[in-house]
Automatic annotation (TrEMBL):
Superkingdom of source: Eukaryota
Keywords assigned: Repeat, TPR repeat, Transferase
InterPro entries in the record: OGT (IPR037919), OGT/SEC/SPY_C (IPR029489), TPR-like_helical_dom_sf (IPR011990)
Organism listed in the record: Aegilops tauschii subsp. strangulata (Goatgrass)
Protein name as catalogued: O-GlcNAc transferase C-terminal domain-containing protein
Boundaries of every O-GlcNAc transferase C-terminal domain copy: 7-92, 105-291
Single GO biological process annotation from the record: protein O-linked glycosylation
C-alpha cells in the first residue's frame, strides 16, 4: 500500500495519536508522518534519538535517558515517563528464567568453568576503540578472566581478536559464540559473571535481556539518548548506583572491583534476581498505565488549543488519568 493511501486512511479513520516506532531504522515510513495525517504524532522506542522532524510533536522517553538539560538537542517535546521508558514483557514470555537451575552449562558454549567471564552481547558495531581498550585493560587486571562476545556479525571475530592481541590480550581470552534464539540467549546469559556495556550505543533490548537473567552490568552514560538507555534500565531495577559509572576510569575500576570481590558481586547478583518481580523495569502493566496517561495528556493539551508542550507523567489518577 502506498504511503499516500495509508495517510489518507489514517486521516479518514480520525486517528488521534499516531506513533512512529521506526524513526530512521529499517522499514521506516516517515513520509506517512510527513503528510501529518493525525493531529498528534509521536516518536517512541524504535529510534533512540531525535527525529529532527517538525512533523513529530513528542518523544516518549524518561528523565534519565533524555534529561531536561539536553532538551535543546531534541526537535520534539519531551514526555518523561516515570521510571524507565523502555518496555518489555518478560513476565509473560520468559518466566522460566526465574527457575533456580539454568539448563545450560558453560561447556555447552566452549566457555571455561573455572574463569571469571565478562560478557557483552551487543552487536559489534557498538564497540569503539576506547571501550575495547578498556575491556582489554580489565581482562589483563583480572587474573584468570575471559571476555565473551557474540559473532554479531561473524566477520568481526578475527579482527577483534587481532586488536586484542595487539594490546597484550591472548586470543584465547576472547571467546566468541553464535547468536542464539531469544529464549536461549536470555537463559544462557546467566552463565556470565558481569556484563560490560558499550557507552557509545548501549545495550537496549539486550540490556533488559541480561538484567532479567539476573546478570549485573557496568554502564557509562554520556549525553545522547542511545548512550543513556542502559543506565535507565539499571535505575529502574533500583540498583542503578551499583551499576552506573561516570567515567572510563571508574568503569574499568568498578569492573575490576566486582570481579575481584566475589562476595560483593554475588550480593549484587542476588539483589538483582530478587527484585525482578517487583521493580518498575519489569512491571509491564504499570508501564502501560503510564503510557496511557501520557497519551491522554497529549490529547487534552491538543483539545485545549495549546501547542505541544513537554511534561512529566505522574502516577496520579487525578492529574494523569489513564482509563478515560
Amino acid at each position: 500500500m502506498t504511503s499516500d493511501v495509508i495517510a489518507k486512511m489514517i486521516n479518514e479513520d480520525k486517528i488521534q495519536v499516531l506513533i512512529n516506532l521506526n524513526g530512521y531504522t529499517k522499514g521506516a515510513r516517515n513520509e506517512i508522518f510527513a503528510m501529518q495525517p493525525a493531529p498528534i504524532q509521536v516518536s517512541y522506542m524504535g529510534f533512540p534519538g531525535t527525529t529532527g522532524a517538525s512533523y513529530i510533536d513528542y518523544l516518549v522517553t524518561d528523565e534519565f535517558v533524555s534529561p531536561t538539560r539536553y532538551a535543546h538537542i531534541y526537535s520534539e517535546k519531551l514526555v518523561h515517563l516515570p521510571h524507565c521508558y523502555f518496555v518489555n514483557d518478560y513476565k509473560q514470555k520468559n518466566c522460566d528464567v526465574l527457575g533456580p537451575v539454568c539448563p545450560h552449562e558453560r561447556s555447552d558454549y566452549g566457555l571455561p568453568k573455572d574463569k571469571f567471564i565478562f560478557a557483552c552481547f551487543n552487536q559489534l558495531y557498538k564497540m569503539d576503540p576506547e571501550i575495547f581498550d578498556t575491556w582489554c585493560n580489565i581482562v589483563k587486571r583480572v587474573p584468570n578472566s575471559v571476555l565473551w562476545l557474540l559473532r554479531f556479525p561473524a566477520t568481526g571475530e578475527m579482527r577483534v581478536k587481532a586488536h586484542a592481541a595487539a594490546r597484550g590480550v591472548s586470543p584465547d581470552q576472547i571467546i566468541f559464540t553464535d547468536v542464539a534464539m531469544k529464549h536461549e540467549h536470555i537463559r544462557r546469559s546467566e552463565l556470565a559473571d558481569l556484563f560490560l556495556d558499550t557507552p557509545l550505543c548501549n545495550a537496549h533490548t539486550t540490556g533488559t535481556d541480561i538484567l532479567w537473567a539476573g546478570l549485573p552490568m557496568i554502564t557509562l552514560p554520556l549525553e545522547k539518548m542511545a548512550t543513556r538507555v542502559a543506565g535507565s534500565l539499571c535505575l529502574a531495577t533500583g540498583l542503578g548506583d551499583e551499576m552506573i559509572v561516570s567515567s572510563t576510569k571508574e568503569y574499568e575500576d568498578r569492573a575490576v572491583e566486582l570481579a575481584t570481590n566475589p562476595a560483593k558481586l554475588q550480593a549484587l547478583t542476588n539483589k538483582l534476581k530478587e527484585v525482578r518481580l517487583t521493580c518498575p523495569l519489569f512491571d509491564t502493566a504499570r508501564w502501560v498505565r503510564n503510557l496511557d496517561r501520557a497519551y491522554f495528556k497529549m490529547w487534552n493539551i491538543y483539545c485545549s488549543g495549546r501547542h505541544p508542550e513537554p511534561f512529566k507523567v505522574k502516577e496520579d489518577d487525578s492529574e494523569f488519568p489513564y482509563d478515560r
